[in-house]
Write a structure and sequence with these properties.
This is Wadjet protein JetD C-terminal domain-containing protein. The chain is of the alpha/beta class and 382 residues long. It has 19 helices and 11 strands. Helix content is 44%, strand content 14%.
Length: 382
Amino acid sequence: MITPQEIKNKAEKKYTSFLQSLVENIPFSKINIRGDKSYTKSSLPEFEKEIQQIISQSKEKKGFGYTLEFQKVKTKYLGVQDLPISIYFDNEKDFLKFLGRKNEVELFSKSTKCILETFPELKNWLIKNPLKVIANQAEWESILKVCKYFKQNPKPNLYVRELPIKVHTKFLEKNQSVIRELLDILISAHIKIDEKLFEKRFNLKYAEPQIRFKVLDKTISDRFFSGIDDIAIPVSQFENLNLPIKKVLVVENKTTLYTTLTLPRMNDTIAIFGSGFSVFNLKYVRWFDNLKLLYWGDIDVQGFEILSQFRTYFPHTKSVLMDKHAFNKFFEDDNGTPRNIYTKLNLTDEEQELYEILKTNNWRLEQEKISLEYANNFFDEY
């Protein structure tokens, strides 16, 4: 026999579709609850107890809630008994009072009315996301202020906290998820659809990642940077650099970047701190396409996975000092970080073979452990 709690659980599952019908102005229709459990057959007292439980929470006893319809049925073990053949809510008031959602729905109706009056084009979003309307119930006035501003200024080119909107300074940051969904609809013609970062997507300024690099050719550092050879600039500025270089060395770790100036003189070359998987910040540096690109990372699974990632942006990248000879010469039995990546990597056959060895044995050789003398000799002959 179905229990009152099971009836409530099933009624809760009907709640979302009820809210959707309110947005669509569909009149309330009877909500049926399927009573799909059979009666307990062990004894008449147990059967009567089950019946009394569901009756005790019904509209008949409480004045609201679900209605029960009974029918005399000849049972196999208990003879002729009155069994509930239908459980339903025949009006909105009974349904909402049973769920304890009356006040919530009143606020929902006010919110959806206000949203639709301001932006009728959000109707389909409301139908698909009624629970998000409720989850943001206390914030809709401010959310709509933000949306109005972007509707009138789809390309603000300001920092989030500079926006002239009368909301709390951190409001937009805290409510980005729902605002993003709405702006995707309201200003779809102006967004950068492929950008995931909120600020980039909606034409805002943001604290850009810094690209740190060292100029390994003193002639270039003197000519373009007043002799400064250790430089960090925003990624957008780095993307527009115009230097007379022919080669770029990307190193995984900061310590290795510090030591690159001890390398043999490298004409027309800069070294970049890739900062591990943050090499994705370099993916739009299209002037790399015509340069010789070298990647020097740790000899571990992550090092080769970062190399693989970098090659998705720049397929002509060549790895350096990431080979079996360097590994065998300097390996000190260090453990790596286990990985469970099974996708095909952008590695050469030799790199893939070493990657599998490192992965199987969980080995690591950090690039800092390769001696400067060894690195110097390598680059002196490169």
